[in-house]
Amino acid sequence: MKKREVEKIFKKLDLKIRSTIHNYGWLIVGDKKILRVHYSHGNGDIPSSIVNRIRGQLKLAQNDFRDLAGCSLSYEDYINILKQKRLI
Q1: For residue 15, what is the domain's CATH number?
Q2: Which of 7, 8, 58, 87 is deepest in the core (most CB within 10 A)?
């Protein structure tokens, strides 16, 4: 996966971003931090093992993550998934 694709996901989910030795993003709903996602700055594409870790941090199944990256899963759909999983 390209870094710009992950950055697009961060932007789509309106993650609050902080960049240090890693790129961190927090999903904040209301005033509550729901989850944290991060990946390294490194060069080149993001390896599949790290992409799977990001998917896990977002609490998404493989199909839902693919839909999120492919633009068919909206922010509202994502929030509904988290509500169904009782994370919100």
Answers
A1: 3.30.920
A2: 58
The range of the structural domain enclosing residue 9 comes to: 3-84
User: End-to-end distance of the chain based on CA atoms, in angstroms?
Assistant: 28
Count of structural domains, the chain: 1
Could you list the pLDDT tens digit for every one of the 88 residues in the chain? 888 888 899 999 999 988 777 888 999 998 899 999 988 777 788 889 989 999 999 999 999 999 999 989 999 999 999 999 999 8
Q: How many residues in the chain?
A: 88
| pTM of the predicted structure, to 2 decimals | 0.83
